[in-house]
Write a structure and sequence with these properties.
It is built from 6 helices and 5 strands, in the order H-E-E-H-E-H-E-H-E-H-H. By secondary structure, it is of the alpha/beta class. It has one domain: Cytidine Deaminase, domain 2, CATH 3.40.140. The longest helix has 16 residues.
Amino acid sequence: MEDYINDLEKAKTALLKNGYSFVLIKNGEIIKKSFKRGVIPFMEMIRDNQDLMKGAVIADKVIGNAAALLAFDNQIKAIYAGVISERAKDLLLSHNIECNYNKCVPYIKNRDNSDKCPMEKLTNGIDDPKIAYKLILDFYLEQLKIDLRGNKK
């Protein structure tokens, strides 16, 4: 059994046991854990420690298209999601990223369940992870006044 399988189980356990929203593990070591919502922990990881992402595994409460594109672009090996969208699952599998999940849904909903999640809307129809990354950066900066830019991309 490959090491990443153990890492994925460890990430899932940490996520569920501690109530994190995001856990990233590489070579048995927890690199990042977060309670922040949305793709912010993923974007912080890209900004701060992108070189550690290749071959790592992620456990996340919710994986939609935006997170799947980021995972593919940063060579994540496997993902566990509490909830995953159908498009995200298909994207991950088409790029040989193992994905385990608790529930698969047609799309990720926004926080009050009245519409699609803003990140799902933003990356709808986008297949290029570089374009998605730029759109996400711009959205957080312009709409939420959160600067997630780094010098890596």
